[in-house]
Amino acid sequence: MTERPSTYRPDPELLLRTIQREQDRQGKGLLKIFFGMCAGVGKTYKMLQAAQEARKKGTDVAIGYVETHRRAETEALLPGLAVIPRKSVEYRGTIVEEMDLDAIIARRPALVLVDELAHTNAPGSRHTKRYLDVKELLDNGINVYTTLNVQHLESRADAVAKITGAIVRETVPDSIFEQASDIEVIDLSPDELLKRLAEGKVYTPDRSRRAVDNFFRKSNLTALREMSLRITAERVEDQLRDYTQDERISGAWKSGQRIIMGISPSPSSVHLIRWARRMAFTMKVNWVAVYVERSRPLTETEKHKLAENIALARELGAEIVTTADEDIASGLLRVAREQNATQIIIGKSTHRFRFRRHILDRVIRESGDIDLYVVGALEPDTGTPLFRMSGNLQARALHYLIAAGVISGVSLACYPFHDMLGYQTVSLILLLVVALLPLQFGAGPVVLAALLSALVWDYFFIPPRFTFLITSGQDVLMIVVYFAIAVVTGVLTVRVRTRERTVRLREEKATALYTLTNDLSSANGQDAVVQAGVKNIGRFFQADVVIFLNELDGDFLNAPHAASTYTPDQKELGVSAWVHWNEKSAGKYTDTLPFAEATYFPLSGPRYPLGVIGVKPRHRLTLDQENLLQNFISQISSALDREFLNEMAKRTISIAESERLYTTLFNSISHEMRTPITALLGTAETLTRLTGDGQTDLLRQLAADVQSATYRLDQIVQNLLDMTRLESGLLRPNLDWCDPGDLINSVLRKLSDDLAGYPVTVDLPEGIPLLKLDFTLIEQALINILRNTATHTGKGTAIRIAVAAAGGKCILTISDTGPGFPQEALGKLFDKFYRGPGSTSGGLGLGLSIALGFIEAHNGSLTVSNAEGGGAMFRIILPLPEETNISPETRHE
Amino acid sequence: MSNIPRILVIDDEPQIRRLLDVTLGSQQYRVLQAENGREGLRRAETDRPDLIILDLGLPDADGKDILRQLRSWTDRPVLILSVRNSEDDIVGCLDAGADDYLVKPFRTEELLARVRAAMRHRQAAHESPLITLAGIEINTDTREVKKQGSVLKLTAIEYSLLMLFVRNAGRVLTHRYILEQVWGPSFTDETQYTRVYVGSLRKKIEDNPAHPRILLTESGIGYRFAGE
After folding, report:
1. In a designed cystine with A302, which of A44, A265, A630, A668 is the match (CB 3.0 to 4.6 A)?
2. Distance in angstroms (rounded) separating the CA atoms of residues A17 and A285
3. What is the maximum alpha-carbon separation in chain A?
4. What angle in degrees, to the nearest 10, is found between the helix axes of B108-122 and A623-690?
């Protein structure tokens, strides 16, 4: 057993990530980022310089998009670099020039230059952002050079905004920064930059002169410079650590730490998310964003903000966990324990409300041994919480008005009868109304109604009337109890009702999923699965659905399935094709091709893509519904996968059936043809032997003639049978290891009669590796070639067989010193039934075409030419197998 | 009973049976004939032949089934004689217990050599620790191997391989069988081992390893130790 150093303990997560990254890079292009603190440091210049160097080394470099800003020294670097013309996009009456992604992919340069990674594309482009274009280029195996400023990194945008006061809108996710295989920092001291600025060497947009002046202050520049240098330093450290991991240099080993943060619909959550990501990145640990879902329904704006926040966290590498709890603090802590969190990040609330601070206090008190980081808010949440609590202000106000109106109306109706009823009865009637209100309204209006009704009752009904004064102690007690009961019943009913609504929604979701899975599992065949999927998505999401199915062999047919409920036009078909090729969702509400009418998702099985589904809902889906839709799609995918496998199994069975039939037939034919030959040959041989001494030589000669004729007949039958096997398409080489020397020996032994009189030399150098091939097929191919050589040259012709291995190939040449082939015959030698000019007798002209067929079945090639010194030369090239691992003297009893 | 060895030929073609009768009869064997599988099984049971020559394409049964039925009660040598020349058929029969396999059409010389090898294998295994075969002397006690008087240095694997071949001289051994016997049952798929070690063994025991005369390759099937 190999010994493991006991001190070494690799972090499996990290190891996995390294492997992942290696795999990611296989077949993908490499990304190099020229990174700077701000505009004007010379990133584009440096990028072009590097491109020119690459060009000189012979790399195929093309410019996808480069902005020189007419700077002479930059433009001087352009000559010699191929430029891929930009695409003109019309947007609101003006023509905007954008990079032509499709043209670059079609042209396939080895390296393409794409300036300004953070650029936002004009509406109508395939992707909303340029970095997504770059990702697609990388996916297509094209290397990319690009430029980026520190302020455009998503996780730094906040900090830059704080330093410079300029809000950054164009950002790229940090993940693309991490994907880069190389990052070159273009560093310039602030003084030098300011000097260049003063000399007019830095391009600045004229329209915002003052903002620019504000931005390019020395203090700002110093801070930005520090930031960009630090980021790069962090990355270097990261790479160093990866290296340590790769090279298994054991160093300090970090136990699995995990950071947890709470995520909410609040805009200040964004700041917290970026803070958490930065910390997780610096500490090299995983982080989890937790959303604690409460029964209080979110308003539409809150839902969208939450979706945005969750998307941001996911983009920045967080794992998202959703849990349901009325108490945020306990929900957060529960998840923290489940996930073995070592750190919790929580926002410092500037709330005046006790309630919010209460959460913080609780977390501090109950977090136990988990470290806690309290992060300051970026901007005070002034005022907003109040409004947020009330949400949709207009509707809410109406609710308050109605609640007040109902109380007033009922009081008014009771007023004339107050003598008859007695003021205590009125209180009961009002209480009933307050208890009924939650059926329609939320907690706020109900509390208002309770308060109002208490006041009305006091003022109009409790003696002395028309004053809030209460004389009787009993009445004081009554009004207090009344108010308490009104508030408690009201609020409790509200709570029960919201909870009931949450439960109902969940139940609806569960039912929908259940119906879907039920329909899918009872569906038999692909068409039925598609129908069930379309029906269920259509019903539950009020959406039109289109489904494209792949062929069984994986070909994508961009034609909608018959069960689809809408027909996509040409433009939509472009989107579905993109989704198929890239296996990513695209279309409406996504960053890719957002101008489509529907959203398209890939249907992918565990082994291969199955198709594409397009969904066009009548209303935009909520976050919940989107998640549910994803669930639906994965259910449909796995049902489709099941049907694909079924279909494939059926095909395999039918192929196996016909193969079996073929083999039976083949066996019986070969039996019928060869048995008489065997009898003939054997008899002739025995005759030759028996007609020994004392018999005439003539008899012996005749028997020998029968024997050799039969031998030839046997060869012809063998050739015909081989040809039949080839033509049937069922020939599958049975690959096994083979020693090339063994192969040649076996061939020469079998041909000892045919090659008698032909001096054969074998040139087999030491160290030729084992081959992996079907021994009998290649043997037969070599026999056919050598037999051909023997019949087309005269006795005494020297034959040389040489073997060489190079570049993953094994090259076998068979050359002779005969006359060679006439030029016009060379091209036809491998044709079926072709017989060379002047060929004597015998043979069907099948031997060489069989040899070619057998060799091609091994992914090899067979060519023939006339050697320079005369004579024909056949060259066989076969692929060499991967290096074999022969463990020496191991033996298991 | 006489001590003339008896050979049962199970083949449906009368010409082939007659041919074998003449060929084998001339070599002091007695030939028994059966024209289908059922009769073949019956005669094998009643006549107890010393060797059975079996065709695969019989009118009433597949020869492989007959082979399996024979192997369920007897270990008499069985030589398959068939037109089927695919490796699958040959290896399948050998793994199912056939002693040898000869493809039709065949050379009479070849057939006689195979018959002799199969018969000899039936005789008692070597009792003496000294074996001499094809110019190679082996002392199984000291594990010393000599060729033309000089000692050969064999590794443990090479020695096991050589002994396996010597004990089965004249018989074809499939790659699978060799791997199982020498390396162990879990190595039956490591077919590259046999190529490498047979190569190194040839370098030591063959006069001209490039043209082996002792350890012969059977295309796609395995190896045969040709020393008689």
Report:
1. A265
2. 12
3. 159
4. 100
* Contact predicate A134/A31, CB 8 Å: yes
* pLDDT for residue A42 is more than 70: yes
CA atoms within 13 A on the CB side of A547: 26
Asked whether the beta carbons of residue B191 and residue A710 sit closer than 8 angstroms, the reply is no
Distance (Å) from the alpha carbon of B146 to chain A's nearest alpha carbon: 21
Residue pairs spanning A and B at CB distance below 8 A: 115
Torsion angle in degrees (nearest 10) through CA of A547, A553, A558, A563: -30
Q: How far is CA A798 from the centre of its chain?
A: 60
Q: Which of residues 121-160 of B touch A (CB under 8 A)?
A: 155-157, 160
Contact A258, A288 (CB under 8 A): yes
Binning pLDDT at 50, 70 and 90, where does residue A389 land? Answer: very low
**Residue A670 burial by Cβ neighbours in a 10 Å radius (0-12, 13-18, 19+):** buried
Fold of the CATH domain B127-225: Arc Repressor Mutant, subunit A (1.10.10)
CB atoms within 10 A of CB A735: 15
**CA A184, CA A232: separation in Å to the nearest integer?**
9
* A671 at B interface, C-beta within 8 A: yes
ipTM: 0.82
Which residues on adjacent β-strands are paired with residue B54?
B10, B80
Contact B191 A737 (CB under 8 A): yes
Chain A residues near residue B22 by CB distance under 8 angstroms? 686, 690
Beta carbons of A689 and B210 less than 8 Å apart: no
Give the one of A679, A710, A736 whose C-beta lies nearest to B16's C-beta: A679
Residue-wise pLDDT tens digits, A246-303: 444 333 333 467 888 888 888 778 888 888 887 887 777 888 888 887 767 777 778 7
Q: What is the pLDDT of residues A665-692, one digit of tens each?
A: 777 787 788 888 888 888 888 887 776 6
Dump the DSSP string for A689-730. HHS-TTS-HHHHHHHHHHHHHHHHHHHHHHHHHHHHHHHTT-
Tokens 């005439």, located at residue: A696
Residue type, A748: L
**DSSP labels, A627-687:** HHHHHHHHHHHHHHHHHHHHHHHHHHHHHHHHHHHHHHHHHHHHHHHHHHHHHHHHHHHHH
Amino acid letter, residue A837:
P
Three-class secondary structure of residue A803 per DSSP: strand
Strand, coil or helix: A318: coil
Q: Does A683 touch chain B (CB under 8 A)?
A: yes
Task: Test A745 with B183 for CB contact under 8 angstroms.
Answer: no
Nearest to A144 by CA among A189, A113, A109, A180: A113
Instruction: For domain B6-124, give the fold.
Output: Rossmann fold (3.40.50)
